[in-house]
Specification:
four-stranded antiparallel β-sheet; 142 residues; alpha+beta; single chain
Amino acid sequence: MIVALGWLIRIELRFKKMFRGRGVSDLESALSNFTKDLDDIQKWAEKTHDSVEDLRAELKKSARHIGIVRFNPYNDVGGDQSFSISVLDDNKNGIVLSGIYGRDYNRVFAKPVMGGGSKYQLSSEEKEAILKAFETNNPDLK
């Protein structure tokens, strides 16, 4: 009987040490608090999951695909100083900008892009920039 009493006192001391500062005096209260904490954590996890899903949906609409092509449209001008840059979202919507460099002038064109195409005629360099924006190993983005 003395051994059982000693064992019971040790268990009670361990219990008090485990729940010290938590305002819990019995196992039932401890389990109730634990269950409440688990419910709170689950609610927080669900809210976090919903927030992440909202962010994923917004990310698909952000301009995050970029393709760059440099080219030389004229034989008498040195270097690839002209360019086409596409900036697109996941649905291939966005813009393509082209700059044409000549000896006596510079011209810049902007064209809207919807679904990877445009209502305006696209040059081969602009089409290439749109394709490059979705290449998985696009060296221009590294």
